[in-house]
Amino acid sequence: MSLVVVGSVAYDGVETPHGRVDRMLGGAATYISLAASYFTKTRVVAVVGDDFAQEDTNLLLEHGVDLEGLERVPGKTFFWAGKYTPDMNDRVTLTTELNVFAEFQPKLPPLYTTAPYLLLGNIQPRLQREVRAQMNGLRLAGGDTMNFWIKDFREELLATIREWDFLLINDAEARMLSGHENLKRAARAILDMGPHTLVIKRGEYGAMLFRNDSMFVVPGYLLEDVFDPTGAGDCFAGGFIGYLAQQGFDLEADHISRGELSRAVIYGSVMGSFCCERFGVERFRTLERSEIDARFEEFRKFTSF
Amino acid sequence: MSLVVVGSVAYDGVETPHGRVDRMLGGAATYISLAASYFTKTRVVAVVGDDFAQEDTNLLLEHGVDLEGLERVPGKTFFWAGKYTPDMNDRVTLTTELNVFAEFQPKLPPLYTTAPYLLLGNIQPRLQREVRAQMNGLRLAGGDTMNFWIKDFREELLATIREWDFLLINDAEARMLSGHENLKRAARAILDMGPHTLVIKRGEYGAMLFRNDSMFVVPGYLLEDVFDPTGAGDCFAGGFIGYLAQQGFDLEADHISRGELSRAVIYGSVMGSFCCERFGVERFRTLERSEIDARFEEFRKFTSF
Description:
The structure is a homodimer.
Chain A: E1 3-6, E2 10-16, E3 19-26, H1 28-36, E4 42-48, H2 54-62, E5 70-72, E6 79-84, E7 91-97, E8 117-120, H3 125-134, E9 140-143, H4 147-152, H5 154-161, E10 166-170, H6 171-178, H7 183-191, E11 197-201, E12 207-211, E13 214-218, H8 232-247, H9 258-275, H10 289-303
Parallel strand pairs in A: 1-4, 1-8, 2-6, 4-5, 8-9, 9-10, 10-11
Antiparallel strand pairs in A: 2-3, 6-7, 11-12, 12-13
């Protein structure tokens, strides 16, 4: 069943201990869509400038991503550049040029408004809320946010996530949003804010899923070489919602089991791990669904006892 | 089957965000023995001064720990004091008074030398090696070490662990010992140093077990309140080796499965998590085996998919 993804489509400059790329395709909506495309029909809502390259459009099209909602306007595409610390657990932003993204007003083509699944990438909470309000017949909606919105747009953010089924954030964001250092307390406080499902991403340490009555924790996949962690969290989101959309699951319905949600967390982890294996979106040029399922089985093997 | 534990029995002063205790029972051999005592007959080799309190002796005796190898000499017992950072992932040593521990020469009572299981806590590598040489009929031997020995006693340490079946260290120590930042590469390098089994402890993030042909990873147990992480790594070691000794497993034999080792890692994680719930060894005053098995089942529940 089809999935709508809203967020940034951008160009990134990235430096890691493994090398440096001055300009390559990036952006949350790009990573989410590419990852989700292995599971379900994905429709993207984003804006790019007139510098957006045909080959980048082609990569998304080759993955079957619907680009009807990809608006093209005069000007330059959003550009971000950053440099990772030697252990790659942190990064410094070197440049943020919002360009055409500064005036982004998500516009949903009519076909999109009836999609049952919605993933709102990290953008202004008010915009996230407006998109959700345009959707009819949603079975499952949720998304991501970041420290900037948590700190300076708290009320808007709270009004936005109150209507979400799930929230996907990292551990630092969970602590900031809840005011609790301890993740168990943080999770409880966040589940009281509206979403009935919370996924906390912990980078190389894996991910946790919290609902009021259950918890699931998975360690990270141990890669031999992490080339570039950029986009890994977005690919996690794409794998998570993509799998649920593929299965046609409805988190509100009674029939969804903790096992089904847990498997969505594993598929999220799998997609995040592939993302780190090459710079930018490179890994998605060759990645096959069979590799995804094989890594899912690897997760089962190294975590079961 | 019986287990010999060698290491420090000490007094600790600990400050965490939850409080402060100026002087309480501590030391690696204390934590290892208490944790292992829930699984198997445990015999301790250590030295204390004439200030060692009867009530502390009694706690160990109540857990069935054999104290024939606990030497008492004139002078003061080893004293360590430290203070944890607010997130409790790091600590600063405030005081280290080796006292009688400075001249520690482990002496094994005759009965100890035929025990099939040996856990060498973090002491001088040469002493660890001498203890192992006194044992007859070992089925399984291994232990712990620390940054100080890795850096300044590398050759002695390498000669020592070459004879071990397993090594239990934390991630920073694994990186230092191997010279590899990446834990997969680090593990491979360490397995080439002798031990056929490596357990890397990652604190709140859990633990990993590596053998040449397999890997097992478990996330940490999510506690609502971590009162005091002191001794958690030693309790992990006690649960790990204690379970293997209880089962009578022999890592060299063909019949040991990856599942059995994985369950030992879970029991280690369980014991480490209980340790953090109270200051020092307090939790072991009331802990029952049934609670341990219940938490083991909790691990199964929150990790399976």
